Amino acid sequence: MLSQMQRLVAEVDGRYATDSELQFIQDYMASFKLRLSAYVKLQNAEATIVQQVYTRMQRMDSNLLKHGDADVTAKWKRDTIRALRYSAIAMLLNDPDILQERFLFWFQTIMKAFGTQQSCNVT
């Protein structure tokens, strides 16, 4: 929604927007209750979701969250919560661009720098 709004502002500079250019706002409003409901459900289930993923990952490979001798479980949980929250807000705002541009590119770069792509892929 925010990305679309920014594009709209740039495109209609000095003129009124057309009905078709404003359609995304109507679509956003029509689906807002459903997206808000999903957002609240994700918020309420966050701890359960993260714990279930963690348990599953441990069953797959108990060394997956080890980096050398260090246990990186706490960092993994923080990163997983961050990813879940960013995804939820992108869904609430109906703006996948915000997720990709502001979070995923940055996050992927960090994960590559720390050599944790395997646990990210499994997550």
How far the N terminus sits from the C terminus, by CA atoms, comes to 27 Å
Number of helices: 5
CA-atom Rg in angstroms: 19 Å
Instruction: Encode the helix/strand succession as letters.
Output: HHEEHHH
Structural class category? mainly alpha
Roughly what is the average pLDDT, rounded to an integer? 88
Low-confidence stretches: none
Mind describing the biggest β-sheet? 2 strands, antiparallel
Strand order of the largest sheet: 1-2
Strand element count: 2
Work out the strand percent. under 5%
Shape: elongated
Percentage of helical residues?
Answer: over 70%
In words, what does this structure look like?
The protein has 123 residues and is mostly helical. It contains 5 helices and 2 strands; from the N terminus they run ααββααα. Strands 1-2 form a two-stranded antiparallel sheet. A hairpin with a 2-residue loop joins strand 1 and strand 2 (70-71). Helix 2 packs antiparallel against helix 3 and helix 3 (73-92) packs antiparallel against helix 4 (96-114). The chain is elongated, with a radius of gyration of 19 Å.
In short:
By secondary structure, this protein is mostly helical. It has 5 helices and 2 strands.
Keywords:
mainly alpha; two-stranded antiparallel sheet; 5 helices; elongated
Write the layout of secondary structure elements.
Layout: H1 2-11, H2 19-60, E1 66-67, E2 70-71, H3 73-92, H4 96-114, H5 117-122
Antiparallel strand pairs: 1-2
Helix pairs in contact: 2-3, 3-4
